[in-house]
Amino acid sequence: MAGNASAAITNGSKFLGNIIAGSAPGNFTTYWNQVTPENGTKWGSIEGNRNQMNWGNADMIYNYAISKNIPFKFHTLVWGSQEPNWVAGLSAAEQKAEISSFITQAGQRYSAKSAFVDVVNEPLHAKPSYRNAIGGDGSTGWDWVIWSFQQARAAFPNSKLLINEYGIIGDPSLTDKYVTIINHLKSRGLIDGIGIQCHHFNMDNVSVNTMNTVLNKLAATGLPIYVSELDITGDDNTQLARYQAKFPVLWNHPSVKGVTLWGYIQNQTWAANTHLVNSNGTERPAMKWLKQYLGGSSALMESTDAQDITDSVIQPDSVAEPQLQLDLQPVLESVPAE
Fold first, then answer.
1. SS (H, E, C) 196-243
2. Is 14 helix (H, G, I), strand (E, B) or coil?
3. Contact 269/231 with Cβ under 8 angstroms?
4. What SMART domains does this protein's entry cite (predicted)?
5. Angle at Cα 275 formed by Cα 271 and Cα 276, nearest 5°?
C-alpha cells in the first residue's frame, strides 16, 4: 500500500509516516506515506461529553488516508492520559460498559481500512483510571492490557494490533518490562507489532549502542517494530547531526517495518525545534538529508499536494495543549538517564 504514494520520499517496503491534526497540510504526501491522527482518534477527543460522539476530525483523517491510498493508524483505544474526564467518576460496571462501547464503535467505523491500531498506549507510564474495571493487574500483572487487546481483536479483526510506549529506546531495563507485557499478549495471539515512541527527550542524547541493544531485545520477541512518534530537536546543525547518526539505526534494523514522525512543520509540532520544514515551506538541513538518504529527492510531487504550505496548514486541535501537558508530565518525572 505504502509504495503507491509515489510522491513520498520513500516508496519501499517500509513506510515513513507523520501525523495530521486539524487538517492535512498541502504538502503532506510530498514527504509521507502513512498517517496517524495526532488527537482525533483519542477517546477524550471523540467523547468529551458522555454519549456525545464527535467523529469529525477522525473521519477527515481516515478518509484522507484512504483517498491517498496510504496506511492509516487508529491512535489509540486505551490510554490513561487523554481519557474523557467523566470516566473516572463512574462505577466499575459503567466504566467497563463505556470503554467497551467506545472500542466497538471505533471498530464499526474504522476497522475496514485501518492498517494499524494502537490498542494500549503507555501502559508503563499512564494507566487508565478504569483499569480495575477491565481486569486490573490480575494473575498476569497486566490483565487489563490483555482484556483491551481481546476487545480490539474483535472490533478490528483485519488490523494489525500494536502496543505503544515511550522511554523504551533509551532504557534497556524498561525494555525488559515492556517485553514482559508483550510476551503475555503474544502467547495469546493478540499482538501484531511493537510501537516505540522515540521522542526527543530520549533520542537527542541516546547512544547508538543503547538503541541497538533495545531494538535487538524487542526483535527477539519475533514481532515487527514500528517507530511510532519520532522527533529530534536542536538547531539546524545539531538536528542534522542527530538524524544522520540515529535515523539509520532505526530505519535499517531488519525488525523495524515503519517509522512515523510526530509532526514536521514549524510552530505546529508539540515540542520546539523538532520541525523539519519551516513555516515558509523551506526545508531544514535534516529534511534535505532525509530525502537524500532515502533516495527520494527527485520523487515526483503530486500536483494536488505541491501547493504552498501556507494554503493548508495544520490547525491545532482543541486538546493539543492538554496533550502537551499530559504527555510531558510523566516524562519530566521519569525520563531515564542516558
1. ECCCHHHHCCCCHHHHHHHHHHHHCCCCCEEEEEECCCCCHHHHHHHH
2. coil
3. yes
4. Glyco_10
5. 160
Which residues are CB-contacts of 209 (< 8 A; sequence separation ≥ 6)?
none
Hey, which residues does 117 pair with through a beta bridge?
Answer: 74, 161
Please give the biggest Cα pair distance in the chain. Answer: 57
Q: Which helix (H) or strand (E) holds 194?
A: strand 193-196
Alpha helices in 253-319 (DSSP H): 285-293
C-alpha cell at 86: 467523566
3-state secondary structure of 32: coil
H/E element, 20: strand 15-20
Using only C-alpha atoms, the chain has a radius of gyration, in whole angstroms, of 19
Question: Using one digit for the tens of pLDDT, what is the confidence trace for 62-73?
Answer: 999 999 999 999
* Mean confidence (pLDDT) of the chain: 88
Cβ 75 vs Cβ 121: under 8 Å = yes
Q: What is the pLDDT of residues 257-274, one digit of tens each?
A: 999 999 999 999 999 999
Establish whether 229 is a catalytic residue.
yes
Q: Are 7 and 300 in contact (CB under 8 A)?
A: yes
Angle at the Cα of 200 from the Cα atoms of 258 and 327, rounded to 5 degrees:
95
Q: In this structure, are residues 219 and 182 in contact, taking their beta carbons and an 8 Å threshold? A: no
Which residues share a beta bridge with 290? none
Q: For the segment 195-251, what is each residue's pLDDT rounded down to a tens digit?
A: 999 999 999 999 999 999 999 999 999 999 999 999 999 999 999 999 999 999 999
Identity of the amino acid at 277: V
Residue 12 — pLDDT band, cuts 50, 70, 90?
A: confident
Q: Are 266 and 256 in contact (CB under 8 A)?
A: no
Sorted by sequence, the CB contacts under 8 Å of residue 219 that are 6+ apart come out as 225, 253, 254, 255
Can you tell me which residue has the cell 469529525? 56
Q: Count CB neighbours of 312 within 10 A.
A: 15
Helix axes 172-187, 143-155, angle to 10 degrees: 50
∠ at Cα 18 (291, 54), nearest 5°? 160
Are 47 and 12 spatial neighbours (Cβ–Cβ below 8 Å)? Answer: no
In this prediction, residue 11 carries a pLDDT of 84
DSSP state of 161: E
- 266 within 8 A of 282, measured Cβ to Cβ: no
